[in-house]
Predict the structure.
Amino acid sequence: MGMFDMLKNAKDMVDQAKGFQQGAMKSQQAAAQPVNLNDPMWAPIEGVTLDLYAEISAGLMKNAVMGLEAVNKYAESKGVPSGAWQKVQNGWVARMGTNEPVRMRFGNLYNEFLK
């Protein structure tokens, strides 16, 4: 590899790092903005709020609940309608994939509930 190729690769790496940094800053800025709790991204799914979803998710991990039947039973014991856990889980995961504030709040709540 010649010197010019090495310089070009170094420049590309710097540009890529700048892009990552800008993305991280954008995420931090989005997380710092006040949220409108009336926004549909916060609407409960099958009656399950994000807070309850985080509590149940952490409880499943903390208590090593495994298997579909055991997971559903645990979720139902926390107030999830019978047979609705998979829809709840899929719904919140989808929202976290498209809404940074939802993802950030879930992460914070999940970590707190794991303590």
Q: What stands out?
A: The radius of gyration is 20 Å. Residues 36-114 form one domain. The mean pLDDT is 86.
